[in-house]
Amino acid sequence: MAPFERIKDYSEERATFGRRALLALFLVCAVFVILVVRIYYLQVVEYERYTAISERNRVQLQPVPPRRGLIYDRNGVLLADNQPTFSVTLLREEIRNMEETLQGLADLIEISDRDVDRFRQRMQQRRRPYETVPLRFRLTDEEIARLAVNYHRFPGVQVEADLIRYYPYGSSLVHALGYVGRINERELEHLDPVAYAGSNYIGKLGIEKFYESVLHGRVGWQKVETNARGRVLRILEREDPVPGEDLVLSLDLRLQQFAESLLEGKRGAIVAIEPETGGILALVSTPAYDPNLFVTGISSADYNELRDSRDLPLFNRAVRGGYPPGSTIKPVIAMAAIDSRTVPLGHRVFDPGYFEITPGGRRYRNWRRSGHGWTDLNSAMAQSSDTWFYDVGYRMGIDHMSEYLEMFGFGQVTALDTPEAIRGVLPSREWKRGARGEPWYPGDSVNLSIGQGYLVATPLQLATAAVVLANRGTWVQPALLQGVLQENDDGIVLARPVLAEDATPMPEVNVRMPELWAPLIQSMVDVVHGPIGTARAVGRGMQYEMAGKTGTAQVIGIAQDAEYDADAIDERHRDHALFIAFAPVENPKIAVAVIVENTGGGSSTAAPVAREVMDAWLLDDYTSQLEWAKR
Amino acid sequence: MSNRDFQRTMPGADVHFQSPASWWSYTRLDFWMLVLLFLLCCYGLFILYSASGQDMVYVTRQATRMLVGLVVLIVLAQIRPRAYKSLAPWFYVAGVLLLVAVMLFGVGAKGAQRWLALPGFRFQPSELMKLALPLMVAAYLARNTLPPSFRHLLASLILIAIPTALIMRQPDLGTSLLIAASGIFIILLSGVLWRYIFLAGVAGAAALPVLWMGMKEYQRQRVLTFLNPESDPLGAGWNIIQSKTAIGSGGISGKGWLQGTQSQLNFLPESHTDFIIAVIGEELGMHGVLILLLLYILIIVRGVMIAINAEDSFARLLAGSITLTFFVYVMVNIGMVTGLLPVVGVPLPMISYGGTSIVTLMAGFGILMSLQAQSRKLRR
User: Fold this and answer.
1) What angle is formed at CA A30 by the lines to CA B230 and CA B224, rounded to 5 degrees?
2) Before A325, cis peptide (omega within 30)?
3) Between chains, do B312 and A57 touch, taking CB under 8 Å as contact?
4) Is the ipTM of this complex over 0.85?
């Protein structure tokens, strides 16, 4: 066999090859048939499906965030603006070495550890592929230039333009306006994801929060063609966003800033309201803080400093400060006593310097130990005699007092647009049973009659009560907003926005004895202008007539026979000074409530502040006579 | 023996084409093959312009390579088959040595070591091996009687295994597959007994797990991704999903030249190289793909005809191997882009952008034409 094997059979080899080659050609054709079938399957059978995928790839719907509405004061001064700022953002998909990139950027521009921490937080949040993550906001021109020169070294690093809220008057208005901040994850759960697609900021506090729906505007959309890297190549369709509506507030910036200066270095609050409209002219709480810090996210160091400050700058005393209102509620108590027919208009009480429910029992002391002798409504109001009010308070009891206090707005939030406002405490029998589990004692009524005890009110509520007094019982709803700017055929007009959560209007204060208003208000005039009025010092040389009531709120209880000695106790335990007032008495233009914490009696510190505010508003006199506020 | 073996001219050639056919025969080139290759190149440049993002630089570079390839083709066609036969062992040994050199001193990119850096240019020895291996195996088997004995079979399998293993180590799965295929086609065409083929099939199936163990991580990933591309739509499965989407969304008549969104907007990766058929599918639709497939099958049929008519076993085996390897390129590339086969780096012949592959392919066709010219001369 072996030798035979070596002989090549050429024709047989050729024939074998021919068979194999034809077989191969057959298999080749079979494979081509498979390929053609596959192509047919993809391009004909599955055509619709792949067309849809291809369109989804190519066309993206991008939100176009609306411009947030601006906020103006009553004179058209811009209080909240949108400023174009530049941020440096990173695109993770294009960054090979994140640490190197961060280090390299830190050599170029200032990047704090905090920026890096917050950046890492944002990186961990869920996001779409090819969505940029901001690293630092508010780049300076120089930083933008430095980044631009070094772009090529940092693929995936971009400078992006954004509109960021800016409050030009900083801390002056923060307690009135609030501020916006970046949307956090908790808010994200409650937000309409469509309406807020593309929006990074939301109102967190105050006006910015309350009118969020008006200010935000309506998101727009654009259909864009993008490439695989998410870069927009062209816009196919576009629905423009509707910018947020611009608000006009009743606030007067000049008055607000002046009022703020009056409390400089002190803790306190001033609320000024126009009685005719209820428009809030000034809403001051000191100390305050710069809202601009919060817009892009405050650093924890800055935040801790604000939070831990003993003066509580973050605390909005004007709407959240719950104080015992002290004697400032005496006009309401007097009205309650007489109008409920508990005592006649000429009711007289002898003031020996104290009041006893039963002879020889517990003594409720008048602020003046020697007493005021015989007092009636007018002299008791003017001198703020506690004994007269102890007497009428004891006689009428809690039910009448709480009924009238409620009519004047205590224990409720009556203002339209102060979302953080607290209700305070309006004591009643039911309240005490619920809150304390105790019945109402006659002694509680005695305490309540001079604004001590359980009653807790905010400066905003006191100013509201002053408005009701100024209007002789006619209610207006206190509000910061005058209207929104809208354009119609007549040009630009102010319109009331339609809000879902519009408050129900308060009922009018219906008194049985309308003739009571005149002597009651006269007694308040005598507080300021009368010869024995507690605030007669501020009434001196006044070019208009003012009605007011001083108040002093005890911070600590004083023992039965102990003497209140301002010098002996810690400054923080000193009494709060309060004052409510309106002016002019006829046709009032302004009502004010002032509280200055831990400065003693209302006549000495709070009343002069109120006068300065009135002088400014009524006489356009923005110079301060106050020792501590002189510039 | 058929009548044709005694014919001196093609039927009908004596009427009109006698004179042109006679001068043409001196070029030793195959007219029809050349026409088909020319059409294929034109088609390739046409679609490359779109696939490269309308960049004439790519097109001119590719055209230059095609011209270089044409020169190589013409030169190689002039060399007698006998010379190839005698030079085959030298090519083979040189090729293996160069592959070893690549292993030792090679340079590379993306984790693969495939090139030898020579002064002035980079050289990829596996390309040389694409021609050297079939030459060697064809020469070796044709020297002995066919069908090959078991001993010769074993020897030729070793000849195939050495370069295949070296290239797989680089790692370059696509090229090693093509080279192994070019050798195995020769064995199959040589008339090897069916029972050996059957045994090899069984052994191959048994070797699959071993092959799996030997693969690099990214190669395994490709296979896994092939089995389920949707498992990682943004990662490894991206290529397949995007290429299927491109082809599928092209429909019957396509989105129009330069109008493909998948390819023009960069959704399709490697759109001008390995995945270029997806651009054809998207922009020119099924019509475009069928034209391409028609060109390919005509080239293959022509190649098989040349092989069948070749003068001796060496020429037949070599011509068959060159043709069928060309077919493997087409099958693997289109199969992978349409999602029928795993992603291995095999270009679409004459269409995909890339230098060496075109020159090597043209060189293969040059050898094929040399074999063809020889048999034509004998018949005359």
Assistant:
1) 20
2) no
3) no
4) yes
Residue of chain A with shortest Cα separation from B339: A38
Residues B192 and B337 in one domain: no
Please give, rounded to a whole number of angstroms, the shortest distance from the CA of A164 to a CA of chain B.
Answer: 33
Residue B192 inside a domain? The answer is: yes
How much is the pLDDT for A3? 45
Same domain, B105 and B124: yes
Could you tell me if B36 and B107 lie in one domain?
Answer: no
Residue B370 lies in a domain: yes
Which of B152, B184, B215 delimits the end of a domain?
Answer: B215
Residues B268 and B197 placed together within one structural domain of the fold: no
- Phi (first) and psi of residue A133, to 5 degrees: -120, 125
d(CA A631, CA A261): 9
Q: Are strands A59-64 and A71-72 parallel, antiparallel or unpaired?
A: unpaired
pLDDT in tens, A313-363: 999 999 999 999 999 999 999 999 999 999 999 999 999 989 988 888 888
> Between B245, B266, B320, which is nearest A50 by CB?
B245
pLDDT digits (tens, 9 = 90+) for A240-295: 899 999 999 999 999 999 999 999 888 999 999 999 999 999 999 999 999 998 88
What is the H or E stretch that residue A537 is in? helix A536-539
Which residues between 191 and 250 in chain A have a beta carbon less than 8 angstroms from any beta carbon of chain B?
Answer: 225-229, 233
Q: What are phi and psi of A587, to 5 degrees?
A: 55, 65
- Mark which residues 123-142 of A lie under 8 Å from B by CB: 129
Which residue has tokens 């034209």?
Answer: B291
Which residues does chain A have within 8 Å of residue B237's beta carbon, measured at their own beta carbons? none
Within-domain flag for B188: yes
Minimum-distance CB partner of A43 among B1, B251, B313: B251
Q: Which member of A21, A28, A233 has the closest CB to residue B265?
A: A233
Q: Is A327 a catalytic residue?
A: yes
Q: For residue B241, list chain A residues with Cβ-Cβ distance below 8 A.
A: 53
Catalytic site residue from A199, A327, A523, A603: A327
| pLDDT, position A140 | 87
Q: Compute φ and ψ for A162, nearest 5 degrees.
A: -150, 155
**Global confidence as pTM:** 0.67
Find the residue in A nearest to B246 (Cα).
Answer: A54
Report the number of distinct structural domains present in chain B.
2
In angstroms, the CA B277 to CA B333 distance is: 9
User: Percent of chain A scored above 70 by pLDDT?
Assistant: 92
∠ CA B137-B142-B145, nearest 5°, is: 125
B320 contact residues in A (CB cutoff 8 A): 17, 20-21, 24
Does the beta-carbon distance from B252 to A34 stay under 8 Å?
Answer: no
Chain B residues within 8 A of A18 when measuring between CB atoms? 308
Residues of A in contact with B324 (CB under 8 A): 24, 28
> Based on the domain organization, do B277 and B252 belong to the same domain?
yes
- In this structure, the answer to whether residues B116 and B210 fall within a common structural domain is yes
Reported as a single tens digit per residue, the pLDDT across B276-332 is 999 999 999 999 999 999 999 999 999 999 999 988 889 999 999 999 999 999 999
* CATH code for the structural domain at A253-295+312-474+509-619: 3.40.710.10
Q: How many CB pairs under 8 A join A and B?
A: 149
**Domain range for B137:** 84-215
As a whole number of angstroms, the distance between CA A483 and CA A492 comes to 12
Q: Quick one: tokens of A42?
A: 């993809």
Domain end residue (candidates: B149, B181, B215) = B215
Write out the two tokens for A180: 């916006």
Q: What string of DSSP letters covers A569-618?
A: S-GGGSPEEEEEEEESSSS--EEEEEEETTS--TTTTHHHHHHHHHHHHH
- Of B191, B251, B317, Cβ closest to residue A47: B251
Quick one: CATH architecture of A62-70+83-165+180-200+215-241? Answer: Alpha-Beta Complex (3.90)
